[in-house]
Amino acid sequence: AATLKEAAEASGRFMGTAIADGRLGDPTYTGIASSEFSSVTAENVMKWEAIQPQRGQFNLDPANRLMDFAAANAQQVWGHTLVWHSQLPGWVSNGGFGAEELDGIVQDHISTVVGEYAGEIAYWDVVNEAFNDDGSLRQSVFLNTLGEGYIADAFRYAEAADPSAKLCINDYSTEHTNAKSDALYEVVSGLLDEGVPIDCVGFQMHLILDQYSASDIQSNLQRFADLGVEVVITELDVRMDMPSDETKLASQATQYADVVGACVAVNGCAGVTIWGFGDADSWVPGTFPGQGAALPWDENYQPKPAYDGILRGF
Ligand code: XIL
Question: What's the whole-model pTM score?
Answer without folding.
Answer: 0.98
